[in-house]
Write a structure and sequence with these properties.
The chain has 91 residues and is mostly helical. It has a domain of 62 residues. 42% of the residues lie in helices and 10% in strands. Strands 1-2 form a two-stranded antiparallel sheet. Helix 2 packs across helix 3.
């Protein structure tokens, strides 16, 4: 006897390599822009102490599904920091 519940829920489809690559590119760009925005605040100018941005984790772009970000975290390219935030992975 086959359980009808397992037939109704297909296995989740993994994102394609192209989609993962584009999502990673979008994440890096968002992280870079967020850091630049943080550094442009008052007190970080050329005549100040030149502090670097303290941003290390961001909410990923919403153009891609959460499954994409989870797969990138599973691959070690991103690190899930909790609360919907991700940072660049160790590799």
């Amino acid at each position: 006897m086959v359980d009808s519940e397992t037939e109704a829920t297909p296995a989740p489809e993994l994102p394609s390599n192209k989609e993962l690559k584009l999502a990673m590119k979008a994440f890096r760009k968002r992280l870079k822009l967020t850091c630049l925005d943080d550094e442009s605040r008052m007190g970080y100018g050329a005549t100040s102490s030149g502090q670097r941005s303290s941003v290390v984790a961001i909410e990923p772009p919403n153009q891609y599904s959460p499954a994409v970000w989870q797969e990138l975290a599973n691959q070690g390219r991103l690190k899930h920091d909790g609360g919907g935030l991700y940072s660049l992975g160790d590799s």
